[in-house]
Amino acid sequence: MTIAALELNDQSLLILAEDGALHAEPGFARLTSDGIVTGEEARSVAWREPQHVYDQYWCHLNQTPLPIHHRFARHHADIAFAQLRKLWLNAGSPESLILLAPGSLARAQLSLLLGMVESLPSRASAVIDSALAACADVAGDTLFVDLQMHESVLTVCRPHGDSIRIVDQEIFPGLGMGQIQNSLARHISDILIESYRFDPLHSSETEQAIFDQIPHWLTRLRSERDVSTKLVSELGEHPCILNRDAIKALIGERLASVRSFLEKWQGCSLLLSHASGLLTGLVDEFSGAEVISQTAGTQRCLSRHEEILDQVDDLCRVRELDRLESCAAAPAVNGERLATHLLHGDLALPLSKPVSIRIAENGPRISSEFDDGAALTVVMRNRSLETLHLDADVSLPQTCRPGESIRIGGHELKLIRVRDD
């Protein structure tokens, strides 16, 4: 029986197949006369065509009729099913799915999701809390931060004897990456109004341009004090400078509501989901946090699915698991020699800075920069590969040891270690 693991975070819904094939896309959907288009194609026009694009159908998964009549979508569940089916097909139509679901997914929503999986047709083998999957191997109390598009979930996982369990969890509605991006867009608008009497949010084209660039700007601000950029409109070019301290203050205001939970569990280790990784350089409370790799939870569930299924009696969301002994590939440990560079042809680029892979007609091209048009951008953080941008089906290495490979578009790029002497 073929099996895949699906993680539900609408910043980046991710499905990982047994052969390592990975597909991820954001929770955006565009309703057209021909059907429902999901993922990056829908996100790329979301601010130009707000009347046609939806982005809250996962956090508000229900069968409440939409305010408009549409041939292909009666409610949010229809839109979510279109994206679910696309992910499932991209993974090779697996017969069975392990679902990694956030604590914010209510019981009624979970029942609806299970019916959608059955309609694919596939079978849900298990439903694991996303935080539990992320923390399955931790050694002590760990606070897991999962920032989604329109809400956040903070979870404390605790090892206890031979098991690990969730001991506390809080959901923060209205606190997601979407709200952080909206605050940043308004901040940029204020700068340009003050400098040029130009409001970019009054034009759908420039508004789309801002939201297209925000992930890139936030990534740079994690390590740069100031980011110089410019916005191009029909009125000309409008340069501006984004200051990291100002952006940190902006995000800090948004995160005020989570501080009481953080203080309650201040003795815990901090672990951030991959989608929350931007917070490490922009929120003081998370400056020392570890960021989990993009596929850590799904890979863990896939590689150990037989052990997990032995512990699952029904399809309620699992909030406690036996501590699992086997692992497909042990993580790199301190002192172990890790890869330092990505090699393609005769060019080796250091992974300490972002490396982008663009697929051209004559094969891959790699560059030491954040390339918005690339198929993949990665960087080495916390002894693992962190995906900064993904716009293709890829197979990522489970570890960062020399000799491992990134497979993308039928090509293979090697991880190597370059001596520092």
Question: How would you describe this structure to a colleague?
Answer:
- The protein has 10 helices and 25 strands.
- The radius of gyration is 21 Å and the shape is globular.
- With about 425 residues, the protein is of the alpha+beta class.
- The strands form 6 sheets. It has a 6-stranded mixed β-sheet. A 5-stranded mixed β-sheet has the order 3-2-1-7-8, with helices on both faces. Strands 18-17-25-24-23 form a 5-stranded antiparallel β-sheet, with no helix packed on it.
- Residues about 325-335 have low confidence and may be disordered.
| Tally of separate helices | 10
Number of β-strand runs: 25
Oligomer: single chain
Instruction: Report strand order across the widest sheet.
Output: 15-14-9-10-11-16
Supply the key terms:
alpha+beta, 421 residues, 10 helices, Nucleotidyltransferase, domain 5, 25 strands, six-stranded mixed beta sheet
Helix and strand arrangement:
Elements: E1 3-7, E2 13-17, E3 22-25, E4 29-32, E5 35-38, H1 40-43, E6 53-54, H2 76-90, E7 96-101, H3 107-118, E8 123-129, H4 130-134, E9 142-147, E10 151-160, E11 163-173, H5 177-196, H6 204-221, E12 226-233, E13 236-243, H7 244-254, H8 259-264, E14 269-272, E15 290-291, H9 296-303, H10 305-311, E16 320-322, E17 341-344, E18 347-350, E19 355-360, E20 363-367, E21 376-381, E22 384-390, E23 394-395, E24 405-408, E25 411-416
Parallel strand pairs: 1-7, 7-8, 9-14, 14-15
Antiparallel strand pairs: 1-2, 2-3, 4-5, 4-6, 9-10, 10-11, 11-16, 12-13, 17-18, 17-25, 19-20, 19-21, 21-22, 23-24, 24-25
Helix pairs in contact: 2-3, 5-6, 5-7
